[in-house]
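step 3/5: co-fold with 6-O-phosphono-beta-D-glucopyranose
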Amino acid sequence: MISHSETNPLREGLIEAQVAQPCTLVIFGGGGDLTRRKLLPAVYNQALDGALPANFAVLGVAREEMDNLSYRDFARNGIERFSRQPMDSEFWPDFERLLHYQQGSFDDLQTYLDLKEHLQKIEPEFGIPGNRVFYLAIPPAFIETCVTNLNAAGLVYPTDGSHPFSRIIVEKPIGHDLESARQVNTVLGKNFAESQIYRIDHYLGKETVQNILVMRFGNSIFEPLWNNKHIDHVQITVAEEEGVGTRAGYYDRAGALRDMVQNHILQLLTLIAMEPPWAMQADVIRDHRQDVLNCLRPITPDSIGDCVVRAQYGPGFHHGEDVPGYRREEGVAQDSITETYVALKVFIDNWRWAGVPIYIRTGKRLPKRVSEIAVQFKSIPPILFNADTDHPLEPNVLALSIQPNEGLSLRMATKLPGPKVRIYPVKMDFRYGATFGDQSPEAYERLMLDVMAGDATLFMRRDAVESSWKFIEDILEPWESSRTRWLPEYSAGTWGPLEADRMIEMDGRKWRML
Ligand code: BG6
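step 4/5: write tokens
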């Protein structure tokens, strides 16, 4: 565990954490899977950690028939199964009294009028000054009606400083393509000010992802090397072991590019590649992240063949058991050509990154769940220890491990002990768990507190969502207009298709073994 000491103070006061303000968290879709698995467990953990504002309540709104009591049972069940910290039965009674429920249909204005009354009852009881966070944990088709009705019912206050706050959290997917994303953003923009809108990308809430900026700009040794003079290439891997599971209805229309690259992976890329921000302010950081998206080299019909590989998992093994191929999964069309794997080679055309390829791969039914960003530095010259061209030294790699083992490691050449000069690559390893002990908070815990504090740094601004779609569309359009009926296949439980190996090997490089 780390210790506070006068000579080695924690630098926590340096960037003043904004404080979560008293508010009611209204969850639309309050009876759904996301709420049960992620949102209520996140609120529970915040409560256990004493991080919630003293004046706080939750109001779930959904179609399901429930009252406050059955909603509390629903919450308890989700928390028992999915919470980071175990259920504390002594604490539970204090917590459950915060939870309320309202049944209603999202497309009926009456639901919102009732909601207003309901809030006006809860707020004085909990000493909440009228601040509200609306969390849309609902299918995208309901966003428009929900947002418009919230406004029509007078639930959106102006941002003139003389009203309590109304903030809205929107889940992905924001749109299905650029045009539909713009429509969603326009509807949001008609009813809420941009400063009230929090588009969540849960990857930005992961502890290791937040550490990227600290690692880059809190240390003096990396930044001088962080450019095309010293970096050979970057690899971003987000591998999942699971198949499509019960989400075929959504996933079969989305695919890996939309589901993972458009949002999570491009956001990781912006953090790795951005210029040093001049202040830890939401819009300064978001402007700098946006600059990276603006510099992404568009994929063209000429480059798509060399820079993009898509594939689908076929039958294979998972933990020694047979598992079906994607087309045999429940709810998936038997002739589906939805990609469950995608590999890309992208370039950022700016002064710092010119000529440095960034290889990205993500897929379902890969051998293990592992996400990492690896920065491979250039090889040393072929002299001295690297003179044997048949056995070149392995270059330095800085790997940021996002999950499951959060940490970072640096591969370096060292001398094997003994009379001869024999060189061996070793890893300097830092593991969060080993150093800091406690489990890191879940992404949703951090992100919801940020919304209550009014800090939008880790959320997607409208321009980021739309630029990411623009980049992705150059790939989606040719895919969708091609008459392909089969995609390259990889067996479930393997590291993707041969085509992806070829893509990187053509450049004389290899995917990392993870
Ligand atoms: C979601 C995707 O956004 O992220 C899922 O829709 C994916 O398909 C999930 O499984 C991965 O998140 P995590 O935090 O488990 O890596």
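step 5/5: annotate
The domain at 23-164 is CATH 3.40.50.720 (Rossmann fold).
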